[in-house]
Amino acid sequence: MPALIISTNVNLDGVDTSSILSEATSEIAKIIGKPANYVMIVLKGSIPVSLGGTQEPAAYGELVSIGGLNPDVNKNLSSTIASILEKKLSIPKSRLFLKFYESEGTHFGWNGSTF
């Protein structure tokens, strides 16, 4: 179950967040090789963020997955997610930090149990 949580200082009022969520879901599923119905995206806007001492548009994200991550996949995910946020929210690629976590199924709760 890949899960991506993005926090940004961009105000999301009036933004078509559904297109961001659907595009990110599709791309993450494709890159990691997991079914899209397993992918969760959380997008939080209007979060105070400072990067390099400025509050220009920026974002921080964490992506956790049970399997499927490696250096090449992470590089592809970073490029793809940065492109989506640049295109949809005008966040420059240089103002996005992503952290990747590989996890075990027993560390994910779902449906009243674990994976």
TrEMBL record:
Cellular component annotations (GO), alphabetically ordered? extracellular space
Instruction: Report the Pfam families cross-referenced here.
Output: MIF
**An example molecular function term from Gene Ontology annotations:** phenylpyruvate tautomerase activity
Identify the InterPro entries for this entry: Macrophage_inhib_fac, Tautomerase/MIF_sf
Q: Which family does it belong to?
A: Belongs to the MIF family.
Q: Which protein, by its recorded name, is this?
A: Macrophage migration inhibitory factor
The organism of origin for this protein = Dovyalis caffra
